[in-house]
Amino acid sequence: MVFRSLISSKNILSAFLLLIYFILTIVIANNCELTQHRFFSSLLGLSLPLFILSCGRIVACIAFLPLWGLISVHLYILSHYHKITYDICAAIASTDTHEALSMLHTVPLTPLLIACLASAGGAYLAQQAAALRHKRACLCLLILCSTFIYGLNRPLPHDITGHYTRAITYDPLRHAYIHNTAFETYLPYYINLPGIMGNTAVAASLKYSSMRGLPHQKPLSITAHHRIDPAITHASTPKERNIIFVIGESDLASHHTLYGYDQYNTTPEINHLSQLRYLCAIANAHSAASMTHHAVPMMLSFYSPTAQDKLVSEANLIELATQQGFQTLWIGTQEASSLYGSAYGYISEFSQHFIRPDRTNLPIIIPENNDDTLLPIVKTQLEALSKKQPHLIIIHLIGNHAAYTDRRTKNDQEALPHAGSYDQAVHHTDHILGSIIRLSQETLGQGTLLYSADHGEYLSSPEHGEHGIYDGGYDQYTIPVYIAGNNHLSYCRYANSLRSPHGDFSQLMEKYILLTMMGYTLSPTIVKNDALHDIVLHADGKAYPYRTLPQPRAPQR
What we know:
This protein is of the alpha/beta class. It folds into 2 domains: 2-212, no CATH class; 235-546, Alkaline Phosphatase, subunit A, CATH 3.40.720. β12 and β13 form a beta hairpin.
């Protein structure tokens, strides 16, 4: 009788669902960077589906839908990013509804339909397998709670401790930036509960912490730092009266004509400026990180892969420009008060004036993620600037960020009718950059413009791509860097002197070019040392010499 009950259809179906869940969660756990105890935590994780199956058929049917949905999301991330890192969990936590829907457009229809059918099928099987068993449900709930307590309190590996103590987020309750201890608090979930439960717990906890604020944390003051990096040895008269720093997004240099791309003319305006000898391109340039929330702060401060505390302990470039008498202005189409963007949002608010979709200190509204709406605001603000002072203007674009179809216009499609949406988005960024250069010439006169993407892009097709991939290779780091203006040749020569022994130009060296424009004298020893080591911060949170980055896996034979 007991044997018959054990081999009943419900138990067989339950065992099948648990086996599938265990296999999938162990696969996901083994592809989470830095995690430990994968098998043991995945085994404990079986208490979740078993608890659901013990709560009756209706609960099981309803609960298994989002559970299979979470599994599908994890598998989709793995298929594109190959690893699920802690930074990816934080990026998911900071994604709002608009961004989520925009990213959903990039998912091909076939895998989306498969995921929906799998979720519906899994919910149906769960409904057939479930039964109301109070004692087993209570036991599973006890194991589940104990698992989370274990995950949150087990000590972290020594080399991980302290890694995220400097994470900056915006506190919506007090309208201030803080050191968000939640990044460090919830890291044990990711480390000790690898897989579906750990990643979901991290994302949900970080999302909750960002929504409610952390009132016990001391706000970071937007006041001048007294400490100046030792790389600066002296300050004299600025060399440039007007400096415009344009930060691009997800821009792969190998899809620009000046970098050898000949399939389509993606950058006609940049090409024209080059032919007029008004612009030069820096070859073999790479970013310092493959994710925006690390790369942009490194472009504007002495924060680096091996010195992340300098973001808040030393004067950033906007402060240093102010000390040299520059009027400072930040205009951007990317919001910067989420978990993901707060680090560069913090820097932006050192500007005399800043205009972002989420926050501004001027009576101006700029829509999010639309560079076309930025141009009239740039024109108005440049015309309003005092002509008696030098100016530093930072313009942060949404550029070529996915979904690429949202970054192109009808003009781009007509100009490149046979190109993929990524190339059409590059063509549009070229138009935006050319327009900014013309506006600066018309309103400010002489000056120098530096354009640099925050990072490159790994393209899996002409329509789809990503960045922040553990083994995505060099494309997600390969960026275009342009210098335009009457004095561009001298700065291009200086940029070429800042290369590593391998001939690479690091994004970290751009700050030295900007500081030179501002009139600062730099320590040759420190600058040379930075170029010599050429360190980047990778998607797994580790610092690597650029030439030793994890590379794409060899194709299976």
